[in-house]
Amino acid sequence: MAVRACGLIIYRRLKPAPSSKVTDSIEYLLLQTSYGTHHWTPPKGHVDPGEDDLQTAFRETQEEAGLQASQLNLIEGYKKELHYPVHGKPKTVVYWLAEVKDCNTEIKLSEEHQAFQWLKLEDACKFAEYEDMQATLKEVHQFLCSKE
Questions:
Q1: pLDDT at 125 (0 to 100)
Q2: 58, 63, 71, 107: which has the highest count of C-beta atoms within 10 A?
Q3: In the chain, count of helices (H) and strands (E)?
Q4: How far apart (Å, rounded) are the C-alpha atoms in residues 62 and 73?
Q5: pLDDT at 19 > cutoff 80
Q6: Per UniProt, which keywords does this protein have (predicted)?
Q7: What are the boundaries of each domain within the chain?
Q8: 83: burial class by Cβ within 10 Å (0-12, 13-18, 19+)?
């Protein structure tokens, strides 16, 4: 059976400079793991028994980044499933998109992560070394730009 995990791609909007495009003010939250290769990823984790996927995404975001569901706006119309092998076993990760209501909200990391960054798309793609995550971040950015 495939391992299943769920998470939220979290973004914030800074106040744009008068000359810049609104989409230039978007930053994405990535967390650096404190295990393995110390890769950067949005908050995510395994589904617990009795939990639905979206509950898992919100629980993991609270555990890993200290963000409560009440501090986030879930963005309608975006959901992404990634499929890839981990240690030779298939894994499915489902992501939703959420915006922090207050761009100054404090991030509180769990012991699973050692650092976090708010990054513009280009930098977020550099930090997220996996191609499917880079593609997902670009897709999210296009989705947000199309809603402007």
A1: 96
A2: 58
A3: 3, 7
A4: 14
A5: no
A6: Hydrolase, Nucleotide-binding
A7: 3-14+24-147
A8: exposed
Q: How far apart are CA 139 and CA 86, in angstroms?
A: 23
**Predicted pLDDT at 117:** 97
DSSP state, residue 67: -
Question: Is it the case that residue 22 has pLDDT exceeding 60?
Answer: no
From CA 92, how far away is CA 68, in angstroms rounded? 24
Residue 17 pLDDT class (50, 70, 90 cuts)? low
- Dihedral (CA of 98, 108, 17, 129) sign: negative
CA angle 57, 62, 66 (to 5 degrees): 145
List C-alpha distances in Å: 135 to 8, 49, 54, 125.
15, 30, 22, 8
What distance in Å separates the CA atoms of residue 40 and residue 66, rounded to the nearest whole number?
Answer: 17
Domain 3-14+24-147: which CATH class?
A: alpha beta
pLDDT of residue 105: 93
